[in-house]
Design a protein that fits this description.
This protein folds into 2 domains: 139 residues, NAD(P)-binding Rossmann-like Domain (Rossmann fold), CATH 3.40.50; 198 residues, Dihydrodipicolinate Reductase, domain 2. Helices cover 34% and strands 24% of the residues. It contains 12 helices and 15 strands. It is globular.
């Protein structure tokens, strides 16, 4: 793969400067300061694109507060791509815009590396179109923003599982008990048609982790969920939000292991937002976020043999909204760019596709009250 940029400098453009776009701006500012000192590479945010003037204004205001040079602003992503001002593009626009933007970036005459926020797209077909288009562009890399992999306690648990300490993984249980969806520009995240549905928009993170822990391919999904508490008294343009606020999801894998998600988005009274349990045939491991605690032990050692450790990562220079994982995501993305094709992105397009596909299967299972096979969701 040829490189799309000189290794000594990487110029970033951000498409979508809402809450997550500005979070990326924070992370890039901290990354720039660190890598210029440690790796002699210059990271610069040169441009911002967003059709909403208020978002652009907030982006410029933040850039000034962070002491960054003033980025060029554009009302659309195509104008930004044509400007030639960036080598890498962060796509942090609303979910339903990802497909069009990604296809435009991939199809542009100038190569641009891409870090796209989760979900990759809101539908399986759109994800597959992006995957196929990217195959025709070996000169760019595309990384998907499934950054929960990098949260220190989660990363430590991944290492424990991969080391074989727990034996053959049989069960993965992930609980996310948290606050409701935040308010976004034009309230786009209140409707399934825009977000892909809660199990796609939010839970693709956890389906990605299940695949990592199980080290297997998902084959069947069963889910039960509903809108029981949140957003029921909200109305936008005469429409009431249709995003579920709680669900149980079971995922079966082709090696016989199973994953289970317990989601509740009206559980602010929780000590931890995410609790992950992985059980193998000889041991069990757990991770807790944001406590950043990891516990693991073997069946032979019983309760007294359980080890408890605090997980951290000294590479993190900015905690941000996701406990430092977005910073590590950017560190990995930059490393992949600088490797000039020697190594691919740490989270690739197939990871993005499958995380969406499991979510789509879960949404369909809730609607139809049945198991849904991955074959029927993914097609041929």
């Amino acid at each position: 793969m040829a490189t799309a940029t000189a290794a000594a400098e990487v110029r970033y453009g951000i498409v979508g400067v809402g809450m997550m776009g500005r979070e990326h701006l924070h992370n890039l500012a901290h990354l720039a300061a660190e890598v210029e000192r440690e790796q002699s590479v210059q990271v610069r945010v040169t441009c911002l694109a967003d059709p909403h003037p208020e978002s652009l204004h907030l982006g410029l205001q933040l850039a000034a507060e962070l002491g960054l040079p003033v980025p060029q602003t554009f009302s659309g992503h195509r104008e930004m791509l044509d400007s030639g001002l960036c080598d890498a593009v962060i796509v942090s626009s609303p979910n339903m815009t990802h497909h069009e933007i990604l296809m435009d970036i991939i199809g542009h005459s100038k190569p641009h590396h891409i870090l796209v926020e989760k979900p990759l797209c809101t539908t399986v077909n759109h994800c597959k179109e992006v995957v196929e288009a990217a195959k025709q562009r070996p000169d760019i890399l595309v990384q998907v923003g499934l950054e929960y992999r990098y949260m220190p306690p989660v990363a430590k648990l991944i290492d424990i599982v991969k080391s074989g300490t727990l034996g053959q993984v049989r069960m993965v249980a992930i609980r996310e008990h948290r606050f409701p969806f935040l308010v976004k520009v034009n309230n786009w995240n209140r409707f399934n048609c825009n977000s892909g549905g809660t199990l796609v928009e939010k839970c693709c993170h956890f389906f990605d982790l299940m695949r990592l822990f199980a080290a297997a391919h998902p084959v069947r999904v069963m889910a039960s969920g509903a809108i029981d508490v949140n957003h029921k008294d909200e109305v936008y343009d005469g429409k009431v939000p249709d995003i579920i606020d709680n669900a149980y999801v079971i995922v079966e894998f082709d090696n016989g292991s199973r994953g289970m998600l317990d989601l509740c988005m009206f559980a602010e009274g929780s000590k931890n937002e995410q609790e992950i349990s992985v059980v193998g045939d000889i041991g069990k491991g757990e991770a807790f976020v944001p406590e950043s605690v990891v516990r693991f032990g073997k069946r032979t050692g019983g309760r007294d043999g359980v080890v408890t450790i605090m997980a951290d990562d000294e590479r993190i220079k900015y905690q941000g909204l996701h406990h430092g994982s977005s910073y590590l995501e950017h560190l990995n993305f930059l490393s992949a760019i600088r490797a000039q094709g020697v190594s691919g992105p740490s989270v690739n397009l197939n990871d993005g596709l499958l995380s969406v596909a499991i979510g789509v299967a879960g949404q369909l299972s809730i609607e139809q009250g049945r198991f849904v096979t991955m074959e029927e969701v993914l097609g041929s």
